Amino acid sequence: MTAKRIGIESSLAVAEAVRLANVDVIAAYPITPQTHIVEGLAEMVANGHLDAEYIPVESEHSAMSSCLGASAVGARAFTATASQGLILMHEVLLVAASLRLPVVMAVTNRALSGPLNIWGDHSDVMIARDAGWIQIFAENGQQAFDQTLCAFRIAEHQDVLLPVIINFDGFHVSHVIEPMHFLDQKTVDEFLPPYRHPHALDPDKPVTMGGFAMPNMYTEGRKSLDTALRESKKVILDTWKQFGDIAGRYYKPVEKYQAENADTLLVTVGSYSENAMDAVDKMQAEGKKVGLVRVRLWRPFPYKEIIEALSGATNVIVLDRAISLGGPAPVCSEIRAALYSLKDRPQVVSIVGGLGGRDISPANFEKLIATALDKIKTGDAAETIMFGVRE
Amino acid sequence: MKREDTIEIRWHGRGGQGAVTSAELTALSAIHENKFAQAFPSFGPERRGAPVLAFNRISAEHPIRVRSSVIKPDIVVVLDPGLVTLINVVDGLKPGGWLIVNSTRSIDDLQSEFSGDWKLAVVDASSIARELLRVNIVNTTMLGALIKTTGVINIDSLKEQLEVKFGARAKANLEACRKAFATTVISSIKTGGQKKVRTFAVENLAKWSELPVGCVVTDVGNTKQFCTGDWKAQHPVWNDSKCIKCGICSLFCPEFCISQQKDGYFRANEFYCKGCGICAQECWTQCITMVEEA
Amino acid sequence: METLSIYAPKLITSREYIASGHRACSGCGEVLAMRYVCKALGRNTIISNATGCMEIISTPLPQTAWEVPWIHTLFENASAVASGIECGLKALKRKHGYTREVKVVAMGGDGATADIGLQSLSGAMERGHDFIYVCYDNEAYMNTGIQRSSETPFGASTTTAPSGKASMGQHTWQKNMAAIAAAHEIQYVATSCSSYPFDIMTKVEKAIKIKGPSYIHILSVCPTGWRCPSNSTIKMGRLAVETGIFPMYEIENGKYTLNIDLPKLRPVEDYLKLQGRFRHLDKDNTAEIQEKVLDEYNKVKRLAAGNKAK
Asked: For A247-276, what is the mean pLDDT?
């Protein structure tokens, strides 16, 4: 059962989850704010606490490529990155998904250049949105630990065989020391069966992995991948249920906070959810009908749960911690699209904020909600609002 | 929708034979005549020797908007004599359409290959090209047959395009073209007149739900089902009396298709042989000669 | 002629690891080189193949010419994928009872090796993974239609460095990949050529025995890109060696051995004049190439002679 309560930095908690998962190969390249995770793992390997191959590759592109190679022979592979590192491995991300290699990756979300910025922001992973990976957000260190363990089980499930990204905000989560509950090795071993790939590269059963498809094959290949990703939700839900049963912490694709009687729902992703909770508590105490909805599962996109959570509200305010230059903010645009088919759909306001590590305090969240409601009142809610920018 | 006045042409050749150039010159000539025209290849990884396609659309009146493959051509031109028996070259050819073939075979003989209401033209373009261009590349020569039979472009506009493309070599190309114009034989094909019925391979590809995880291929080495023997324009013939059974031909065969028989002599598997001629070139006793495909 | 086995070609195993029906051009030297490499490697091999001709011609879904386990992911990362395979197998052996001895081999063309994939190759050699890297050098990006690479020879005309009134075509000398590999101080580096099956196989067999990285650079004749007849493939490779344009040598723990040391080299013209890509070169160009070839050849020769002196 659940082991004792300890205080630890979130990055090191993720490293501990990877150790408990008894990973076989880690290939990683340093980038802030991901470094503490892989430093932690390198130390475990060096001290003999984790029996794994640590490949200190020469780039993120090679980090992901090495993970593919390891995963393709049937070894459990992990890497971690952020920002430009994720962008550099982007080309390889697509292949990990299409070859159905269940690599697990932690992404400490960070802004993209330029200007160069090393702080929290979701722009890095939003660009990887269409890569075919399962993508999950954690809001604090405990969730990052839990979701990393779940990620291996989801990824390697024989009905899934897809790579998984666990997102958590750079610095705001990655570098924060928090109280956490770990699981013991025996519990993890029971939760996480050994990895087996049905077509692992092996001279006893040779296969060809990565052939090319002409127009007469490509559509079928993409349909097969897309279906696998959409249908992975069943396994994700089942894994979270089982994890909840052993750890006592239950997760859902979309999670609500004080949303029952709210007219206005704020939608957040990632670590800001906890700041927003404080704001919601305060506003509700003041009699304001405001609630919070947090998106945990980003891919496959949880249409059903999003509609279920938001359809009853009058106003929906979506905070994107990413900017889509010249276009609609990514999370809001998908939520709008999901709600579009409803007869009575809520007003949706799009807010971009918290870019490149800029803080949104609980007090600022109150202001943010007020600004959005103002826009709805004045009837100019169509445009994306950039929150907290010096005018 | 395709406009009524648009003429569609499908070119059949082999990678490296210049079918794409034929289509390009046709379109450029038509555009030069103030017509609307397109030329495009079938995009793919086809290699030198492999059967390839190229296409034209030509309209005197209307801009051409369709960018799809030509499925129901008005004209089919076959650059390589061997393709007639390998590929269903008349696939989709419209009734009354033209089939223009480079072949040494007689027109009567060729008529017996097909069944349909088409016009047939035959020219020995390979001999013309070898004589006047000193290579067996018939892309410009066949344009002479196209002009004679269909008149979709005229020879003067082609002349200008040849000069732009080939410079000093334009003259010989034009000469080859004119000779083809003069020697093309014209007849017609009737429905039911076919003597040899050939069956052509039909692709049977998996549904998306039948694809293995990650599109892996578990049936390793299954390119063995794929006939690359279609690509060849010539094949090796052994003179066993000179053969010393050394096996050098087998060693240097890029198709790995030459093997020793029970009697100790070597033969190429025609299903794969692409006719590169390395075996004949490298044979220590020169016992192999390359013979043109019929 | 009953003493058949005296003929060397028959000493080579008849087992193929790449099937017929592949889509290589008629007369392809690269697929021949790959065939000999694979014969020497045998079945206990896992191949990581970079994007390029050999990948495209061998694996059009749903078909494959490969009979050994094979993976292609991208253009520039064959060595990084091989690194992961090698480490994955190590972990499987140590932790999960995997017992087979497998040689990991990364392969790519000159573009995948000397240009876009140089970083991942350098990284994998530096880290000391137990793998063989084989470069099939056909001296340009043939897969995409004969564009110049850093391995395209001086004076060759390609589609992105064409010869014309204002240009002689490629105006740079080839990147010396064998020297770059050797600079990583790996145990075994060798050059070979698609016209020398026994040389290729001997070198691959040596590389298999090395624990750590080894690098084999194989000049692979491409009649399509070099614009020469498809039956001249073997002859062209031999001429490259006999003119000294492509010396075949090994660097074992830093020591050079020139494998074919000709008493007299043929003039480079014998090689250049047979290929369309060099057709535009004049006498001065040829003389410049001749001088450089002799310089480079003599450099290798001196390095090899230095070894003997020691």
From this structure: 96
